[in-house]
Amino acid sequence: MNSSTRSRRTSQRARRIRRRPRTRTIRRHQDQPLLWPDDKHPGPVFRNRQVRLKTQQRGKVTPYGGLTLAHDQAMRLGIDRDINRSIHLLKLHMPYRESDHILTHVYNLYVGGQCIEDIANLQHSQAVKHLVGACRIPDPTTAGDFLRRFEEPDLHAFQGVIDRAREKVWRKLPRRRKQTATVDMDSTIKEVYGHCKQGADFGLGGRTYRVVVKRQEVDVSEGQEYLFTQDRQRFVITNIPRSEMNAGDVVSFAYGRCDQENIIEQLKNGIAAMRMPTGELLANGAFLMAGQLAWCLRSWLSLLALPTETLRWEWKWFRQAFVYVAAKITQTGRRCVAYLADGHRFTEHLLIASQRLQSFTFD
Question: What is the pLDDT of residues 253-302, one digit of tens each?
């Protein structure tokens, strides 16, 4: 490639970046107008009003309007095609393929499903079917049976799909934000009983780790009365070699990223990825990896399309802002349009995020 061709491609990429809509700073707590009740109606602000319920005749309505962004991103990254190329669990496709089953679990966890049975909320929603372009969505029983088909090579293939999508997103980040990648790890204990103990074990897999111990002297007191001094040890396990960081630097680095426990807690409770819904080890592993992909879809949206501060939000906050949005879904031919509720306070950010996603082309 000569210098003129390289400079021309660089200028084209710069123009595409300039055309992308800019994200705006977001505030979770926004001020509301200080309105005052009319003098004609003294008393509490909340009043007893007659409310009548009617059905929406035109269009299909869903409370998961924010699922549009996640599905659009998954399709642009080619996750469905990569799944079908890499994972082969079904001999016949009647009519579902492997990507249909996996994305069903992913979307169920993304919108707040706590178990496999919650897939029924998506299955019986005509609006969600139109949104993902499906005539039908797998039944919870069928989705559970699909998880039991996974073998260890299939889990490795599933992880490969996630890693390749992660690399595509990584290449779209600004150069200043992709200098170093740090993997935070923490352990968690999940109690299992009876036949659910299949494969339950613990091991380090023959890997070599470095253990850094920090000893602290802590004064123990009761009220204002000093009792005694106690020694406490804090452990940091890492693979950072001594040639890169000494013990003090490792401890400082770990303390600078001391929210790993919060991340693990959100993986367990925020998206219920560690519920272990089946009695088989590999099936539970597949469910956990579906939760990992749901987590990645949310993180990639925050990195590419949404304000970056949403990357550290809890799942409850994120869903209330960018998933639980009332939307009317209309379908004409091969085109689907989602009309978001104008009264939602983050609708503007959702529209900007959708426009930013359309500006990206993933190789």
Answer: 887 776 777 777 888 888 888 888 888 889 999 999 999 999 999 999 99
Distance CA 198, CA 203 (A): 15
**Strand, coil or helix: what is 97?**
coil
Query: Contact at 8 Å (CB) between 136 and 120?
Result: no
User: Cβ neighbours of residue 193 under 8 Å, at least 6 residues apart?
Assistant: none
Paired tokens of 275: 């519920």
Model confidence over 54-84: pLDDT tens digits? 776 677 899 999 999 999 999 999 999 999 9
CA–CA dist 71, 165 (Å, integer): 14
Q: How far is residue 64's CA from residue 55's CA, in Å, rounded to a whole number? A: 18
Length of the chain in terms of residues written = 363
Positive or negative, the Cα torsion across 107, 113, 119, 123?
A: negative
pLDDT for position 187: 67
Report whether 68 contacts 107 (CB < 8 A). no
Question: And the tokens for 361?
Answer: 């082309």
Q: Which residues have CB under 8 Å from 7's CB, separation 6+?
A: none
pLDDT digit string, tens, across residues 187-225 = 666 676 655 566 666 555 567 788 888 888 888 888 888
Alpha carbon distance 227, 229 (integer Å): 7
Do 192 and 200 touch, CB atoms closer than 8 A? yes
Q: How far is CA 188 from the centre of its chain?
A: 19
Residue 340 token pair = 């978001």
Domain edges within the chain: 56-173+272-358
> From residue 249, how far is each of 3, 15, 238, 243 by CA, in Å?
43, 41, 12, 11
**Which pLDDT does position 44 carry in this prediction?**
78
Predicted TM-score (pTM) of the model is 0.80
Answer whether 61's CB lies under 8 Å from 326's CB: yes
